[in-house]
Amino acid sequence: MYKELDTLLTDFQDADNYWYDVGCLTAEKLIKMFKQEDWNKFSDDLLTKSLGWQKRLAYCLGDGSNLVELKILLTLASVEDADLFEVCIDSLRSFTSEENKRIIRENRFIIDKVKEVIPKTGVVSRGIFHDFLDNIDEDFLN
Question: Which domain of life is it from (predicted)?
Fold first, then answer.
């Protein structure tokens, strides 16, 4: 499955409407069929891939019960790119279990970075970031 998803993510050079309408749905179906060896390969190659590939992957992740997806999103959120960071935060909003929230809170750099970028973002992005912070733990943020 890894090879098929890698090819799909690589073949879309531009994140156009076709990707968001069709490509991501195909990618999500492939991801649901992943086995541990596929996840291991992804984890090994993640930071060697192009920024576009990383954004497309982050957009497709969001199975709130999959800890590997959570860890991949946390890794991608550490890449210095504002668009990738926003996509990661948007996807991270689906990780709402207490265990997931704990893992996210342990990666304090994410929360600090969200708080740092909020004043510099537009209305839509600001809404995504506020929703993320609200979902993590209101008491933790004060």
Answer: Bacteria
